[in-house]
Amino acid sequence: MGLFEASQLSIGTGEDHLLDEAEDITAKILNEYYSKMMDLDDDDNYYQARVIVGNTLKYPHHKSLPRFVAKNLFLSNYQGENGWIHVLQELAKIDYNVVQSLHQKEIVQVSKWWKDLGLAKKLGFARDQPVKWYIWSMACLTDPSLSEQRIEVTKPISLIYIIDDIFDVYGTLDELTLFTETITRWDHAASEKLPDYLRICFKALDDITNEISYEVFKEHGYNPVHSLRRAWASLCIAFLVEAKWFDSGHLPKAEEYLKNGIVSSGVHVVLVHIFFLLGQNITSKNVDLIENNPGLISSTATILRLWDDLGSAKDENQEGKDGSYIYYYMKEHQDSTAEYARKHAVKHSTGGVSNNVDFGLSSSEVSRQKYADYAFKAIDALPASAHPMTQFVTSGCLISLLFYKHALVFALTSRSGV
C-alpha cells in the first residue's frame, strides 16, 4: 500500500514512468488481495482489512482530501496488530471534532454575509447556495488557522456563480456586452447606465473587491485591486464569448471552446484571490506571473473544465448538449461516440496536459517542489464548479489539480529565493 500511495506522486514526465509502472503493479496486487478478502468469512479482522485496502484503492492519499476520508479509517474500530493505531484514531477524532466545530462557525459567518449582501432577493434568477460555495473553500483551505481566508475566498467564488448565471440564463447579449465593457474599464459612471440587476451585481463586485484589497493591504502591505479587477475582466470577457456563440448558433471547435473555457472556469479569479490573501512573497515579478495566467494556472483550469464537462454530460444525461467539450468534440468528429469523446477528454485532462506544461522550473525543481514542506502547507484552492464537492473529491482530476496548485505556490516562492 505504501508503494501504491507513493506512485500517486507521478506527473507523467521524465523518470516518472517508473512510478506509473509501480502504480499498475501495486494496484493489481491490491485488487487481487481485496477480491480474496471478499471471499473470506466476515469476521472483524477480514472486514477491517477489506475496508483499509478498499479505501486505499478508492481514495489514495494524494488523490483525495485527507480530512474528508480520515473518518473511513481512523474513526472506525480497527485496531490491527499495531497498538499505535489507537493513538492515531484518538488524534483523528480530536482533530475531526475541533475542525468540524470551526467549520460550523464559519458557515454561520458566510451565511450571514450572504444574507446581508442581499443578492439572493435582488437577483431572484441566480443561485442561492452559500453553503455549497463555502464547501469549496473548506475543502481547499484545510489548515484550521486559515479561517479568515476561507471566509474571504467564498466571496469571489459566490460571485463567479452569480455572474455565470447572469450570462447563462438571464442577460441579453446587448446588456451583457455593456456589463463586460463596464467591468473591463471598471467604470463606475458607466455602471449607472446598466439595467438594475447588472448595476446591483457590479456594486457587489466592486465592494467585495475593494474590501478584500483593503484586507490584503492591511495584512501584507500590498494593494491588489488592479490585479483583482483584471482577473474579473478576463472572466467576463470569456463569459461574453460563450454568450455570443450561443446567440449566433456558432459551434466552436473543441479546442477553441477549451481555450476560452480555461478562462471561464473561474480558476484564475480564485487563484489570484488566494495568492494575495495568503500574502506569501508578493513581489512585482510574482504578481506579473500570476496576472498573465501562466501554464500552472491554465493547466489547472484545463483539468477542471474538462472534468466539469464530463460530469455535466454524464450526470445530467445530456451528452454535453449544454455546450461542453464532449459535445463540440463529437460535432467536430462525426464518427465519434459519446464514450470515445469522454475517454479523449479524460486523456486530455491528465497525461496530455501534464506533459505539455511549462512550469517555469527545472526538472530538479519540479521534483523538489512535490516534497517541499511549504508546498504541502500551501492552499489547495479549488475553483467554482457545477458539481457537488463529494463528486469532485472522488474524481480522478483531483491529483492533477492539487499538484498544479502546489507547483504554483512553490514556483512563486522559489522565484523569490525562499
From TrEMBL:
Q: Which cofactor does it need?
A: Mg(2+)
Task: Name its GO BP terms in alphabetical order.
Answer: terpenoid biosynthetic process
Q: According to the lineage, what is the superkingdom? A: Eukaryota
The question of whether Metal-binding is a record keyword is answered with yes
* SUPFAM superfamilies per the UniProt record, alphabetical: Terpenoid cyclases/Protein prenyltransferases, Terpenoid synthases
Terpene synthase metal-binding domain location is 115-345
Sorted alphabetically, which keywords does the UniProt record give? Lyase, Magnesium, Metal-binding
Q: Name one GO molecular function term.
A: terpene synthase activity
Name of the featured protein? Terpene synthase metal-binding domain-containing protein
Organism of origin: Acer yangbiense
